[in-house]
Amino acid sequence: MKALYRLGALVAPALLVVFSISVSDAYAQEPEDTVVTEDVYVTAKKIAELTMESSKNITVVSREDIQNAPVENLQDLLGYFAGMDVKKRGPSGVQADVSIRGGSFEQILILIDGVKLSDPQTGHNNLNLPVNMDDIERIEILKGQASNIYGANALSGAINIITKKAKESSLLLKASGGEKGFYKGSLSLAYAPGKLSNTISLSREKSAGYRYNTGFDILTAALNSYLPFNSGGGKFSIGFTDKKFGANGFYSDSYPGQWERLKTAFSSFSMNYAIENVSISPKLYWRNNRDNYLLDFSRPDFYNNVHTTNSYGAELQSSWTHEFISVVLGGEIGYDDIVSTNLGNHNREKGGFSLSAVVSPLGNLKIAAGGFLYNYDNFGWKYWPGLDLSYQFTDNASLKASAGKSFCIPTFTELYYNSPAQTGNALLKPEEATSYETGFYYASAWISGSVCVFTRKGNDLIDWIRYSSEKPWQAENMTKTSTTGVDVDFSLRPSLFDRRMVLKKISLGYSYLNSDLKTGNYQSKYILDHLRHQFVAEIMHLLPFEVEMNWAFRYEKRLNQDAYFIADSKLTRQFRDYEFFLSATNLFNKNYLDFSGIPMPGRWIIGGLKVKFAL
After folding, report:
1. Which end of the chain is more exposed for a tag (fewer CB within 10 A), N or C?
2. pTM for this predicted structure
């Protein structure tokens, strides 16, 4: 406790100093007619590096990939990449659990523009994000442990969503509709007076649902402002999303009338300031989430849970670079609280220090070593080290290897939830894991691929278990487990080699996982439900009359469930500032489950129009 206060006393004045210096710098220097641009840098590594040079396993989903995907939401999009397991309880991203490499949905860190956004109540709410699809510039998926960089909850990976910066003033309007009473309208206003960049977006989507009590109504609004100056830039973001949806069978097969409403607000301020070979990056953020859950909407007084959580945090990172060495020093403090009709009222403090060094003694060999000294209420300080190696044979090929320890702190639901069906455990310890991986990576302008082999040894993993169907689920720290696997990715973009090519893109991905965990005489709710085999493919090609056709395929074989094959498709035709599209998900109308007892939607066809106006 006292250590955290001392950390806060160090961080707060530093933030004020950096802010004062940055503001004075922005106004004291003569304005220049320059345009700030950036390559596809990987901020997930916290040291700006080109994707090929990063010593971590990172997949970058570009703006083009997002626009061409035959989906309307982030949750469905993430399922197109090998190693990503997205388990959905309903359509249009009303609730989805995302995990990486067989980890649980609690063991992954979610960020927007490098700011942490994971939900302290439950990982079920991690993808309840106040961001519209049209706001996203790219998505960076870091596979493998990242606690030595980010601290808590990056046990199996991290997802960093990078929002767009307006380069010119414009208005984007989009309207779509389709089966099952679906409609969606959105607008995105980009306003860029001088160097200042502003984007304002608003969307509303609604559907009657694909079966009883599966309708939804989702409203999302966001504002992002970015001001560059000669030595860096500052960004302010604020967002809000309101989801109302029928939750038929989400948590109990016995109550088809379950209903839920989630309202999430988020704001952050971040800055980058550089003087020669020294840079400083402060961040401040706040996240509020209100979860209103009814076991039976026809009897709202029968069982009603209302949870309100707040997460506050401050980070300060500084880096120094000289010739072949870079050193990064960071500190953070955080505070979570919850006021709940079921879980009670609780709060916790967390924070720590990170230190890492990147050395390139031979130019093409890069060694990154460091760790995070982290403190969490009731468990004291603990160190989480990591080591990453990267050897670049050519400009296009490299070999990478890493080893490190990671951890995940229990959520408030795991600690304190109490119902006839589920019981939390206030004595839970943080989950821990030691991970190793090595892989070969190749990337050029139009072809890329990778093969990565990894293993993760987990300890005290948290799962909900029960010894018979008559007993409630109980949160427990499980025994040691070992998970091994392989990721294979390949992408070819012939149109970048020759614009006359009809085939624009083909990508293939395969993931295999094997875990040695056995259930014994109890049932497991989450840990023994990961994908064993996963194959994903995407093909984009041209049709006559300049129509673009995009296909996305998924084959998934989950432990203890039947395999299924899903195909999605999208037709797009561009006419100057107008774009018409027609998409179909689950094209062959397959029956499949992500969660036992919750059938997913069949074929769903949606069409729409997108118009962009210059202002």
Report:
1. N
2. 0.89
